[in-house]
Design a protein that fits this description.
- The structure is a homodimer of 545-residue chains.
- Chain A has 545 residues and is α/β, with parallel strands linked by helices.
- Chain A has 22 helices and 11 strands.
- In chain A, strand 5 (197-202), helix 9 and strand 6 form a beta-alpha-beta unit.
- Chain A is globular, with a radius of gyration of 26 Å.
- The relative contact order of chain A is 0.13.
- Chains A and B meet through helix 3, helix 8, helix 9, helix 14 and strand 9 of A and helix 3, helix 8, helix 9, helix 14 and strand 9 of B.
Amino acid sequence: MTITASPAWAAINAHRQAFANTHLRDLFAGDPKRVESLTLTFDDILYDFSKQRLTTETLGLLAALAREARVSDWTERMFAGERINISEGRSVLHAALRRSAGPFPNSQFDVMPDVIATRQRMAVFADRLRDGKCFGHKGMPIRDVVNIGIGGSDLGPKMMGQAMRSISHPVLGVHYVSNLDGAQMAPLLQTLDPRTTLFIVASKTFTTQETMFNANTARDWLRANLGDELVSENHFAAVSSKPERAVEFGVSRDLVFPIWDWVGGRYSLWSAVGLALMIAIGPHAFDEMLRGAERMDEHFRTAPFERNLPVVMALIGIWNTNFLGASTNAVLPYNESLKYFPSFLQQLEMESNGKSVSIGGEALDYSTCPIVWGELGNNGQHAFFQLLHQGGRIVPCDFVASVRSDYPLPKHQEALLSNCFAQSAALAFGRNEGEVRASLEKESLSPKEIADLLPHRIFAGNQPSSTLLMTSLNPGALGSLIALYEHKVFVQGAIWGINSFDQWGVELGKAVASLILPAVYDADLAKPLDASTQGLLTFTRKCIS
Amino acid sequence: MTITASPAWAAINAHRQAFANTHLRDLFAGDPKRVESLTLTFDDILYDFSKQRLTTETLGLLAALAREARVSDWTERMFAGERINISEGRSVLHAALRRSAGPFPNSQFDVMPDVIATRQRMAVFADRLRDGKCFGHKGMPIRDVVNIGIGGSDLGPKMMGQAMRSISHPVLGVHYVSNLDGAQMAPLLQTLDPRTTLFIVASKTFTTQETMFNANTARDWLRANLGDELVSENHFAAVSSKPERAVEFGVSRDLVFPIWDWVGGRYSLWSAVGLALMIAIGPHAFDEMLRGAERMDEHFRTAPFERNLPVVMALIGIWNTNFLGASTNAVLPYNESLKYFPSFLQQLEMESNGKSVSIGGEALDYSTCPIVWGELGNNGQHAFFQLLHQGGRIVPCDFVASVRSDYPLPKHQEALLSNCFAQSAALAFGRNEGEVRASLEKESLSPKEIADLLPHRIFAGNQPSSTLLMTSLNPGALGSLIALYEHKVFVQGAIWGINSFDQWGVELGKAVASLILPAVYDADLAKPLDASTQGLLTFTRKCIS
């Protein structure tokens, strides 16, 4: 039985019809305890979802849906190391990466010795590098680290590195290169000294096209600059589940850090994929981040659904997507240090749950993952918020902010927060005709002018949002935050009945690209390709030659 | 009569029903001339929209809709300087900003003398600065320029500055600050020398909250570092339609550059708002950019609808949004230098057309602007493309790339382009069951394994996209590109019957923020606010104190 045929689903549908478009104004007016009952706290995090278009009754019905979908069973199966990533035959054990101690998942199949040993090796290397005791060409200390990776081997550490830049090493430069486009790597190389630069090549298979192109270009650059004296062992580290390939490339065996098939790329920030991040912020802060995530894991496994942050966040998404018809979800950080957070979530959510086939292989007839998008909120106010306020589309928003600033300037932070709170309030409550009229009448306009302007200045409101407020962007809170979203995605996947841990949708493009590449150089090879690709290649060749 | 009640709309609806979900595979198979007839070129730009789910017949019907909506009349009214921005009583004349000569819009109301005079003043100042002849503290030449502005006073020049960074001044640093968050400005200030830094404060009203906060912080920083010897005239320029306010702030009168009420912020890149960009790339390249835009203006005014790039692009958007039911539009640049292009388009499109009230004030019962979102394409492949390929949602995509790279590395560009072309082909044509089976059978799997994997590896295809391929990111092509999207937005606004040039939706949030700000400091002032805002403020105060 698909989930949409369940009694739980039907009950929500019935509730939704009765509920209709009840306005957030009325929901607030009707329940003085609303904010209290629709707010959760966890350590340093406040999660206020009172401005979602739901009530505690809705939440109860949604929790029943989660029970119907056996979310707890799936959770325990994940934590028990079962191969819930069926299509790839793999366990899903990223939670191991943030555990303090083992055995885990159990004493028969215990991954913790490997995890802890790797964490310790990373810490030794990171400390040595941070202390200026890791040496490049002719014994000069390494001053710049370039992480070469893409997708999960880039977004996680890069996002967290930006989030924690205020505590990053004062001298070492840590950079990220992902794109195949030379326009990312070439200008960066111009700013680096090859004698004191270390590249970390992060690729599970050590065959990722973009990563290997960039790694080869890095090696060529080192060779061109350091000549025969290049000792590539001094300039490369690697993160891979294929250590032999890394060694063959020229990485010293003791600088190859393992990753395992039970870690998905988009869940790998906690592993050696986070090495560049650990180098930037230090092993101690990295460990605090792991502890924050571990606390969230524990909360997720033990808290009742209605008080369980990842579960509640997931259920709100299900409600907005499958019952209120939202097709997107905006993520709006009010903190410059979180500027890569929307991109990170795009991968986490859309690569995990952007699927339309069930874990068992049946085509689904209901919506799954929405489009996740967003920008820094304060900038967005002057860009696309017009549409959120008056565009007539339902766009659930996640506001994310920290109370304390890592870069305080007088008065800025208070003004920033008041903007953040004001936007969610304006989206929720709007401004109705009577209010607009009263306001226009104060502007000494003629009745005709008032009548003309009135409709343009009404705000329908009822745009749903949550606010996730942290005391500060400390490593622990950030660890909790990311684990929260990871588990949210897991719960949604379980309810939608999909495998959140494979990504077959990335395969076809790669296969087609390998057919097109030779045809860039040789027109004859373009002939079997579709007419549009042929046209694009003809234009390309004409322009290159 | 609303446009949805027109015969043209009905004809498209009928066509849409007959057309149903005809697959792009069949459309390509059925018409060998398809690519030729669904590709347009303009100077250095190729626009291939053959992978949109339409035919020349569809395009003809959509062009009839544009005629029904009197798009040509609206265009001529705009170019004639009529006050088509009715709700604000303003003309819409950003096209003037890129004209070579006047009179324009006509000899009675000719804005060109002001436009050309300002352009010349900008060029003189930019050249002086670029030549090291603009002096800061104690006659030291200015080395860094910081543009302080937000929204339209930030995104346009910043985006274009990144796009043309390969030709930017080799020594001068040009930076952009927009966010109220101190975490943007404070770390930047740490890298600057107050003696040799010039701030450009760009705000039409010179009252924009974020911009004035940052401008005041800049002045405080200069004072704290240069003390009584500060001569603020040496460190500030301004762009504003309120020159007196800028002078009062401390800007030298001859460094206040005007902007006029007939330029909307999101269309102002071509004006003095582009000063920081002109400083970066030089007046000559800036002028080439204007010429590219001017050529697009001319094309837009004169080309028949079916061969008119902005019109065709607009009609495709209408088709996807109003007839195929797409609610978003992904913008996917395959060029690192275009990384801010999606953010720029978010403002241009969503602030212009994210409205649900007609220009005459009636509530609309059809969809208008979709959510515009996107990321660099190559990175996106390893992040959210999973959803585009297998998520079951229709997501029209704009692929944007340049054939030549400004930062060529051996082989990278060809591989990048083949990825770009491959993704659009894979999205369009997919991989059907038979093809997947054939491919799986080569992998020596058991029949059960094949049966299990098969559904996960099917790609439905039929995901619509266009590819905009430029020979290179030269200033002229970039000018044409932006003007193309500007006019696309205009045409869509005309068809949807909305005013694309006001933005009342940004007002309410500002008003609410001004109520909340004092309550951050004083709990008593929070009492009249809604319960959620009160809760957020209580958490905030507890954490700050």
